[in-house]
Specification:
By secondary structure, this protein is α/β, with parallel strands linked by helices. It is 43% helix and 22% strand. Helix 1 packs across helix 11.
Length: 375
Amino acid sequence: MTEKPVVVYGASGYTGRLICEYLREYNVPFVAAGRDGGKLKASMEGNVAGIETADYEVVEVTHDLASLTELFSGASVVLNTVGPFSKWGPEVVEACLASGAHYTDTTGEQDWLIRCDEEYGADFAAAGLLLAPGIAQMYTTGEIAAEVALENPGLDTLDIAVFWGGSPTIASTQTILFNAALSGAHYLEQNAYVPFDPEAGHYQLAIPGQHELALALPWGGTSHPVWYRKDPRVANCKALGGVFNKALMLGVPQIVAGALEATKDMDPDEKYAALAATAAQVMNSMPPRENPRLNKSLDSVHASGPLGRAHCVIHGNQNYKQTGLLQAYAAYSLLMQPPKRVGFASGCQAFGHRELLGVLRSFGLVSEPVLTVEA
C-alpha cells in the first residue's frame, strides 16, 4: 500500500522518466514502480531532471495481480507504461479496479484498446473510475486535431496522419513488432472495424509542410478508430503514421515481414520471446533526450461530410515529452476533479480537447492549430 496519490508503473523506461519529470513540475507526489528497484533508483537519479526536488519513492513490485493490487491500494491514479500492453496490461488494469484507482497508459495497440473497451469498460464505469488507454502524442495530439475539426457540425469522416521525428524507443519498437505479429490493424467504416490489407505496404501521403511525399503505415491501426466507433458524429475513421526519416520507414516492413516469417509456427510464449529478441536487434538502447530542433511532430486531420470539409494541422516537437506531459496532466487533473467521462474513454473524452491543447501549448510543445474550413 502506498500513501502517494500516483503510481508510475514502468518508471525507469524512456516515457516513464518523462512522466515523472512532469509530475515533479505539477508538484504531484508519486511512486516510481517497476520490477527492478536498482534500475528504478538509478533511472530517477540519473535521468529525471530536477528529481531532487520531487516528492517520490521507489518501489520494486512483482508483476502479478496480488502484488500490484497491494501496491496500488491507497493511490488514486496509476499511469502504466509497461508494454506490450496486450501481454502485460491485464494484471495492471485488474489491480486498478480491485484497488479503486483510475488507469491510464500510453498504448497504441488496437487489440488492447478493444479489450479495454469490451472487457473492462463497464466495470470501471460502475466503479466511477476512468479507464483511459492510449494517452500519448501519437494518438491524443491527433485526436485533439480531429476534435478541433469536428467543432464544425456535419463532418462524419476522419482521415488522420501522424508523423514524428527521431527514433522509436525500445518499448515502441517492441510494440510495432508485437502489433504486426499478433494482431491486425483496422480502420472504421460505417461504424464497423475493417482490416487494413496486410500486403498493402507503404502508403504515400502528401503532408503539410513539405513537397516530398511521405511514407506511412497503419501502425497497428492506432487508437482513433476505437475511440470514435461509438461517437455519433463519426462514421468513418482511418489513421496512418510514420517517421520523417524515409530510410527508417523503408526498413520497417522488411523487419516486420522477417519477424512474421520467423515466428509463424511458434507457440505464444516462444513468439513473444523471439519478437522481443528481434526488437532488441533493431533498438537496444535508449534514444538520446529529445531535441526540439530535430524531434518534430505533425498531426494532420482531414474531416469531411456530405457538404463540408475541415482540415486541422498541429505542428509540434518532442513527441515523447508530449506523452509525458499528457500523462502527468491526466494524473494532476484526476486528483483535482472527476473526469468528464468514467469507464473507457480517450484523453479528450476524459479531460476535454481544448484543455489538453492548452496544456501542450503552455509547455511550448505544440503550435496553435491551423484550421481551414470549407463550407
